[in-house]
Design brief:
It is a single chain. The chain has 88 residues and is mostly helical. The chain has one domain: MazG-like (Helix Hairpins, Orthogonal Bundle), CATH 1.10.287. It has 4 helices and no strands. α1 crosses α3. The structure holds zinc ion. The site of zinc ion has 7 residues, from loops.
Length: 88
Amino acid sequence: MMQRLYFHSDSRRGAEKTFSWLKEEINELGEAMESTDTEALKNEFADVIAWVASLANLLEINLERAVLEKYPNRCPKCNLLPCRCHFR
Ligand SMILES: [Zn+2]
């Protein structure tokens, strides 16, 4: 969907500038986490995912396939669902 929506403009912008936009959106997500505005938080999550998808499209990565291959309904490290790894 993001490819159909934005690939023409993403192509003109290029991967480096798209990555800069993604970093900006991640910062905005961090700022939204500090407020109690759930709607703003929801919007920032959507923006981050949208920019990740745009960058993946530019780099010819099928994002959905990449995620499902790495996380095939189980943890890639311990191979369990739910994960039993010990994170810090
Ligand atoms: Zn695990």
